[in-house]
Specification:
- It is a single chain.
- The protein is α+β, with helices and mostly antiparallel strands.
- The protein has one domain.
- Helices cover 56% and strands 14% of the residues.
- A two-stranded parallel ribbon has the order 1-2.
- Helix 3 links the parallel strand 1 and strand 2.
- The protein starts with 5 loop residues before the first helix and ends in a 6-residue tail after the last strand.
Length: 88
């Protein structure tokens, strides 16, 4: 499996937004949905667990909130911890 670096992902996101006019929020929704699906399929007993998602600022933090929403919709216990500097 190939893994993209953060810089490569930023470039792919930029190209998707600029070239194909895919809104960033759609990219975020798709990434979060896909990650939640992988989590659910990888951990079959996840409904018996409490899940913590640690999110930062920016789009990656947004992905974390989308993941949490999908897991919550499956009845999974989730908490999101937003780690960011309150001063900006």
């Amino acid at each position: 499996m190939k893994v993209a670096t953060a810089e490569q992902m930023q470039e792919l996101d930029r190209k998707a937004i600029e070239t194909f006019r895919i809104p960033g929020v759609v990219l975020m929704e798709n990434a979060g949905r896909g990650a939640a699906e992988v989590i659910s399929n990888t951990f079959p007993n996840i409904h018996q667990k409490k899940i913590a998602i640690i999110a930062g600022k920016g789009n990656n933090g947004g992905d974390g909130f989308v993941i949490a929403r999908y897991l919550l919709n499956q009845g999974i216990s989730v908490r999101v911890y937003l780690l960011t500097d309150p001063k900006g």
